[in-house]
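G., the chain you wanted modeled:
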Amino acid sequence: MFWRSLDDHDLKNFDDALKNDLQWEWLWQQFLALFLVISNVFMPILTALLAFKVLFRNGWKAIATPINIAYGILAVWMILTTLIAFDLGTAAGGLANFLPYFFLAAITSVIIRTPSQFTHFLWLLVTGSILVSGFGILQAILNRPDLIFPKVIFDSYQIPMGFSADRRIQSFFGHFNETAIYLLMLLPIACHFALGKVKSLSKSQRAIAALALALGTCVLIMTGSRNAWGLAILGGVALAIYYRQWKLVSAMGIVLILIAWAVFGQKYGLGGEALRSLLPEGFVNRLASTVDPKLADYASTADRLNAWQFAISLISQHPLQGWGLRNFPLVAQSMGFDLRGLPHEHNLFLAIAVGSGIPALIGLLGIIIWTIWISVRSAIAKDTEGTMAITAISIILFWLSCWLDLVLYEPRLSMLLWYLLGSMYGLVIHQRSL
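Predicted structure as tokens:
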């Protein structure tokens, strides 16, 4: 069920030069998909070994495609801006958050070439999410925050086996928002599989996807990420629209309006107190604190606004070359600006523009949009039974989350993002051989 070898139909769709080695590379890729979340150190290392193996065996020509060349041009620009950065060493470290993943997307597009591979690869990613959600459920049941999961496994942070002081769960990740965005990206795909939209999946595979969907939804709620909550609802609306379930779209719209009225109506003199009393107090306060300075959690909103204003001022000073990747807190310190403890811009778009200039931001967004556009409009998209479009929704949800947070520095989230982009593109560039 888990490990799927290439069958005759798959093999005939590959170039002769790749047939002998692809079985091993494909098995390796499946292992990485299933156990991606285990470690933010070991899994990137194993991924890098696979990438260099593919490159060594097949050469640069295997990845010399238009979008991959665009990644290369963007990488050159980022390197050039690093050389003139405010702090060269920090900026060089910042390149590690982008360049290896551009390479990862290119290598993934070499390995994953057929709809059956694409579907199985995504199913393994969804199945692997059960490790995250299952561990999160375990944390909630034990609720022993004084009990620390061994740090050596995750290297960079400790994992408390219980709720945080503000009643949030983080599972395997270093921050609650990272857990939430990881699940946010996979839940639409899990939903698509669980609903039986992909006929090539067995009943047991659909059942596993349904389990991933149920557990993932529970843990996403317990992360307390307002950003992810809102985007999860938006993702649900997008799925309903894609499935043309207009009654469901209308119902979800009404529910959203009622929740907004209950949470924010009192502040703006619109009532809603009776409905507000029916909702969980923690849920209401978490949402209301986004705009209500009287609530403690409003500080996160105020701190973001403060950082964004400073980031915009830095962009206006160096719009082309930027200041160097991840140099934002260093520049703020040198200018005596108080970031109120924030380690970064809390907005990926601002972070890229501050780090490598507006051209880098335009270049990266252009590549992402280009990849999604040609993928969902490709002739092969129909052979994925809608999975291509649902994957595009997952990627878009990630980028929307980047308006309020910056989780791309977590290696596993970056790997997941560029896995999805690379696998979509792999189908497109090899569709002529099908």
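Residues 21-433 form one domain.

Shout if anything looks off.
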